[in-house]
């Protein structure tokens, strides 16, 4: 594929014409610059754009609330009582799970805590947790606080899976080495499936097998993977996973998170968990007098009745994903990211080093580029010229062409700008 790419605007336009998903760009609001031109928005890894239909979906709920009041729980066009169930099937497809294994609830870090309450049960022998050294700060804080909650000093209980100096990537062989040395003491592998910084997508199947073979539980944070890469959670066999919906899932700032609990844990009533009434058996939930009886599957971890307005935005976004088809999205993702890679490689190699793996199966649509001798000034000028991207100190730009709304021309125009500034 890469050999046939061309470094011309005409070629980028041709790729857009051939793009089977091109019509979906018009399903989104593309933010505009002060001069009225559209931004080159390459920041879907941080906040996905708003689907135009979202407003209609939310308005419907506002109307039903205005017209029905409390009766909306049962009489709204999409009744609020079972509203979260309307999301499960589409969400399950996106993460490769059975509908019963997923639920939309709370937010990412909250879900991570709830999952660790159930799936991190340290004993005096087996109490350590492995995370990536470069894990997202919230995940690290959450894991450290869980250790402390169980009176374990993170200095002893937290093991960092470190990227190698030479390529800044995490290698499964190094994780194997950690397990070889301390396997008997490790209770949980808690790994991001796509690293937020490097864009590296890990071999989840291998990691899960490795953990299970040595008696550990295995959980994943899909924040930068969901809607980007198919994690095949059921098949991979992860014990649990958590994610947010405001990055590649385009469901609005601070929108709700998702949670996966593997079917093998669906009916385990002995698992410790923090509970609330929304996780209770639906048949008797409103009797309000029964002992807690968890719903079978991921729904059994719900706490509260959910915020419908936020869920309406998720429904709208999932409808777009359903129409586009996740396989098609991933196919375009690989191609548009490879095109970005091709164009960046045409720039002087000495100046830009792509940290993200070169193998398309080991990454999603994000490329993290280290720019030699750059300071934030370069990035600020890019921003001034209409590029929306993400800068990480000291010298890394993260660029994520989202296949649903980014065009090959976006990618071409971005690289032209970058080239002119270097
Ligand atoms: C975005 C992100 C978060 C954010 O957590 P919230 O609870 O949604 O604020 C956490 N972890 C990772 C890996 C992320 O990428």
From TrEMBL:
Pfam families: KYNU_C
One record GO biological process: quinolinate biosynthetic process
Gene3D superfamilies (UniProt xref): Aspartate Aminotransferase, domain 1, Type I PLP-dependent aspartate aminotransferase-like (Major domain)
InterPro entries named in the record: Elp-1-like_TD, Kynureninase, PyrdxlP-dep_Trfase, PyrdxlP-dep_Trfase_major, PyrdxlP-dep_Trfase_small
Function: Catalyzes the cleavage of L-kynurenine (L-Kyn) and L-3-hydroxykynurenine (L-3OHKyn) into anthranilic acid (AA) and 3-hydroxyanthranilic acid (3-OHAA), respectively.
Gene: kynU
Protein keywords: Hydrolase, Pyridine nucleotide biosynthesis, Pyridoxal phosphate
UniProt source species: Psychroflexus salis
Binding site for pyridoxal 5'-phosphate: 108-109, 136-139, 221, 224, 246, 277, 305
Entry's Gene Ontology cellular component terms: cytoplasm
Catalytic activity: L-kynurenine + H2O = anthranilate + L-alanine + H(+); 3-hydroxy-L-kynurenine + H2O = 3-hydroxyanthranilate + L-alanine + H(+)
Modified residues (N6-(pyridoxal phosphate)lysine): 247
Protein family (similarity comment): Belongs to the kynureninase family.
Required co-factors: pyridoxal 5'-phosphate
Protein name: Kynureninase
GO MF annotation terms: kynureninase activity; pyridoxal phosphate binding
Subunit structure: Homodimer.
Keyword Hydrolase: yes
Enzyme Commission (EC) number: 3.7.1.3
